[in-house]
Design goal:
Distance between the termini: 79 Å
Number of helices: 11
Largest sheet: 6 strands, mixed
Number of strands: 13
Structural class: alpha+beta
Helix content: 25-40%
Shape: elongated
């Protein structure tokens, strides 16, 4: 009988002991408990940094571009602002600040709202009619044949290439000919297609100040079983990060010219494939992104190939749907290829 009584009392004693231990830990950790003024008074600077991080992510468009194009620089690497959260979390724990911990919920919520869907997105989120591959092959690529083989393995219907050099062009033409009998090249950009191509012409996206002979845009009509589509291939000028901000004047001007060309396109269905030298969040690409649909995207970081931190290679559409996008294995380029499924809207 005594043993039965002890077995009934023991769990209660254990619960009391656990509560006392937790209170002791709380007292030592927070000073006078989480409800004490000291726990909520500490870490005001950390809490302010958490709120600032959330504000920069949520209201990035209000950061001015007038000086050093700081707005575009922020938007180019916008998802990476989320790395401030674990750093601030560690500091908040070390500081034993309840205020900072609660404040961290704000940037977490903003990041999840902006990019949570991209983390959870499938590489292919629906049925598609064609597959398009975009790749800046690099003018220093020493293995064009191997690069072509990697792209063919993805079984795309169209392949857009940038940074084609005269010496490498013949290698790509030979390697892709059997699977892609139709192709068009203008300057340093080209398109290979399983479908017949017509009305091939250059697209003038050359900013003022760049010497003549610079040609990085083309437009052609692909005759698919579902109907004609206009295909644009573009390689916008590079940007540079300098001590005083982002140097993107030529890129922005070129994006404006490309946007005007797309706006004037008479065919309803359009695919744009290209190295646009920024992400879709960058306002510098607004002349393009305002006219093209980049939905269905996930992160699919493509640059630099050694440690991808950004996707500057894009597949965009008008009156069509990008169902998913993914990167392909590395080639001899400093970019990763990207492949996207594209569905014709009814």
């Amino acid at each position: 009988m005594g043993e039965q009584a002890d077995s009934r009392v023991a769990p209660g004693k254990k619960a009391v002991a656990v509560r006392r231990w937790l209170r002791a830990v709380e007292w030592r950790w927070w000073g006078k408990g989480t409800g004490s003024p000291s726990a909520w008074a500490r870490g005001r600077v950390l809490a302010s940094l958490a709120v600032l991080t959330a504000g920069l992510m949520a209201f990035h468009s209000v950061v001015p571009n007038a000086v050093g194009r700081l707005g575009s620089l922020l938007e180019t690497f916008l998802p990476w602002l989320g790395l401030a959260v674990p750093l601030l979390l560690v500091l908040a724990l070390l500081r034993r600040s309840a205020l900072a911990l609660v404040a961290l919920l704000l940037p977490v919520a903003v990041w999840a709202n902006l990019f949570g869907g991209l983390v959870l997105a499938d590489e292919d989120s629906g049925a598609h009619d064609i597959v398009a591959v975009q790749h800046n092959v690099s003018d220093e690529n020493s293995d064009p044949e191997g690069t072509a083989s990697t792209l063919i393995e993805a079984a795309p219907d169209v392949i857009a290439l940038e940074e084609l050099t005269p010496s490498a062009l013949s290698a790509y033409e030979s390697a892709l000919l059997a699977d892609y009998p139709h192709h068009a090249v203008e300057g340093t950009v080209g398109l290979w297609s399983k479908y017949p191509l017509s009305d091939v012409r250059p697209v003038d996206i050359k900013p003022s100040g760049i010497p003549e002979g610079w040609n990085r845009g083309l437009r052609t009509t692909a005759r698919t079983p579902q109907g004609d589509i206009a295909v644009y291939v573009a390689h916008l000028p590079s940007v540079r990060i300098r001590w005083n901000g982002l140097s993107s004047g030529w890129r922005d001007e070129s994006a404006g010219l490309l946007g005007e060309a797309i706006a004037a396109e008479k065919l309803a269905k359009v695919i744009l494939l290209g190295d646009l030298n920024s992400t879709v969040d960058d306002r510098g690409l607004d002349p393009v992104t305002e006219r093209m649909d980049s939905t269905g995207r996930n992160f699919a970081f493509s640059w630099p190939a050694a440690l991808p931190v950004s996707r500057i290679d894009h597949v965009m559409t008008r009156s069509m749907v990008v169902t998913g996008i993914r990167t392909l294995p590395a080639t001899g380029s400093d970019h990763l290829p990207v492949a996207a499924g594209v569905r014709f809207e009814p």
